[in-house]
């Protein structure tokens, strides 16, 4: 069933708006509103009923241009999607798109002029996917801060690009509520969880994930297991010893477990972090620098710590198909990791275009919806084949 959306066209070119309205009508029973400049567009946005879901925005307009409109959207906390439509140069459009994202907006794409029907429909489909994802995330975030339930790991396959082999799985935590709902990380790592609680929570998640890995291994499906590790847990006394005990209890080797370090909040002592991570590598664990390309500290961590893997953040992967700066960053990161003898994983790959791009950049392992979402442990290994083919994608 196609969701009806309210689409606001903000453009001073009447021919463009007429064509856009015609294409929107052909795409389904969507509602459209039209504004000839930014000021009128803001007025329509404020009075819109139902609220505006998608803004199709020109950049060069009288009274209030597209850049000022983006800033106004950010200041108003607009949660819908934005498509930039402009005849300006690619560099200007890219800069506007980055500005929108810096303002916290969902800028789903950009279109040139004149408007091409197929390109516009593809961008509308991208907006629909983004709006559905935002709604799901909002529902999860709106859950009570201390939801009761059972922590259940799901697993997302990591696929070797060369031959489609399943080489590893990342444990992604879910909370199963008494009524059977599955909630994501916000419900597990809620505001009531103190830093002091993180080590025990992490050990509990690792215990459950390793138990599943041990069961797979007993069935002849040994693969490496990746587990997220908040850097703050490394402040806890004896944490590394506890991890080693877990591995031994489940009959695994440290080399079959990769810990993905996130830098959302670093420990108080950077020297302590370097020491603990070096000890983990000495113990034989794999160590991945997660979300690479999003934080200010991860380049410094890469210099200081003995990581075995670099994990390119999905925001880089997904923007590189359209943004040459992100594309160059991706290529240089892969080249650097290769020179350092590190494995490279690209996460968040969703379209064939993104898959082709990361393969051309030299990425060896891919993780993302194009192959599989995170699934229950009993579904992690397909019954008929051990190789994966990309799922159909519109990208």
TrEMBL record:
Stretch forming the signal peptide: none
Residue stretches making up the EAL domain: 134-388
Highest rank taxon of the organism: Bacteria
Domain Response regulatory: 6-128
Pfam families linked to this entry: EAL, Response_reg
UniProt keyword annotations, A-Z: Phosphoprotein
Modified residues (4-aspartylphosphate): 58
The protein, known as: EAL domain-containing response regulator
Species of provenance: Jiella sonneratiae
Species classification: Bacteria, Pseudomonadati, Pseudomonadota, Alphaproteobacteria, Hyphomicrobiales
